[in-house]
Amino acid sequence: MSKARGEYLDPSHARTMIAELYPTWLAGKASLKPSAYAQLPIAWRLHVEPRWGGREVGGILPSEVKAWAIELTQDRPDGTKGRSATVALRALGVLAGILDTAVDDRRISRNPARGLKNLPRKPKRKAGRVYLSHDQVHRLSAESSRPELVLTLAYTGLRWGAAAALRVRNVNLLRHRLHVEENAVQVNGVIRVGTPKTWQLRSVPFPKFLVPLLERCALGKGPDDLLFGDGIAHLRPPRFGNGWFDGAISRLQAVDATFPRITAHDLRHTAASLAVAAGANIKALQRMLGRESASITLDVYADLFDDDLDAVAESLATAAKKQSVGKSWAGLLA
Q1: Per the domain annotation, does 329 fall within a domain?
Q2: Angle separating helix axes 134-143 and 266-277, nearest 10 degrees
Q3: Residues 298-321: what's their mean pLDDT?
Q4: Residues 90 and 120: beta-carbon distance below 8 Å
Q5: CA angle 142, 148, 153 (to 5 degrees)
Q6: Residue 234 falls within a domain, yes or no?
Q7: Element (H, E) at 51
Q8: Mean pLDDT (the chain, rounded)
Q9: 97 and 139 both lie in a single domain
């Protein structure tokens, strides 16, 4: 009957090993961004292959997959620390993806690594994000060896990879726009250049005071030269502890202990804060930062809009008062 309904699965196909399907599955991930793709072979080599590489796709049970995912996060008797939930879920995702291939190839009828409940959870995003003030941004810029880059990051919200990939042709000094077309990320010590995600391809405004600084960065360079650095080699992300960025922070803290210890990526959050303080709405902020949707942007930066709630309450009170006063006058004149 199963053959008549087209549901028959050849039992011999279910004896295929997980390791046999891995190369085909990985080849299908070639379109991923380099930083995302690089994590897959690592997860396979360290976590998935040792446990599942020699297993037949038809002999895997959901219960043992779940137990394995949880086990990855637990400390071992020999003192080895358990992996983070993020690492465990990434490894689970690799196994689940390979088993999806087995389902598509009709080797098995369902994926035992999908639909599992009570798995390890990623930690929630930390609250209390640090935002620099205008004064702090300019102090950091003046103290650093790359003032133009610090100010660009803090007043445009560009990710490091997008800023590092900017070319002279991407700068429109008349319209005060930076055109984001490329992304340069460091993966395993190597700079990989590609295109941003679709919603990250955008034109980003910058304040007028950046014009002479960006002009100086572009001086003597051709249209295809990189805007920041020597024009040829992409700048690498600042190293934590002894890089030019951290050095500037340390020097500022030496004279002002209240100056926050931040990373270069925190300048993106600072840009969001300064934009909201200047009156930007959530949709404008989404476009500026190159986020997929306004709802995601609001989830990330909800704390920046607390004052807006007060403003809404005040506006409602004002509107109600006007309406009530109007009705009162109408009653008096009747």
Answers
A1: no
A2: 140
A3: 66
A4: no
A5: 105
A6: yes
A7: helix 49-52
A8: 87
A9: no
Both tokens assigned to 129: 């994000």
Q: What are phi and psi of 271, to 5 degrees?
A: -60, -40
251 backbone dihedrals φ, ψ, rounded to 5°: -65, -35
The pLDDT value given to residue 124: 62
Q: pLDDT tens digit string along 304-313?
A: 766 555 555 6
In this structure, the answer to whether residues 173 and 247 fall within a common structural domain is: yes
Helix axes 244-255, 134-143, angle to 10 degrees: 120
Contacts of the segment 125-132: beta carbons below 8 A, 24+ positions apart: 125/300, 127/303, 129/266, 129/269, 129/303, 130/260, 130/262, 130/266, 130/269, 131/266, 131/269, 131/270, 131/272, 131/273, 131/274, 132/260, 132/262, 132/266, 132/267, 132/270, 132/273
Q: Is residue 35 a part of any domain in this protein?
A: yes
Same domain, 215 and 296: yes
- Regarding whether 144 and 269 lie in a shared domain, the answer is yes
Q: Per the structure block, which two tokens stand in for 168?
A: 């002279």
290 in the same domain as 214: yes
What local confidence, expressed as pLDDT, does residue 217 receive?
Answer: 96
Can you give the residue range of the structural domain that contains 57? Answer: 11-104
Structure tokens at 160: 């490091």
Average pLDDT over residues 115-136: 82
Q: What one-character DSSP code corresponds to residue 219?
A: T
How many domains, the chain? 2
Q: What CATH number did the domain enclosing 296 receive?
A: 1.10.443.10
Task: Report if residue 314 sits inside a domain.
Answer: no
pTM (2 d.p.): 0.69
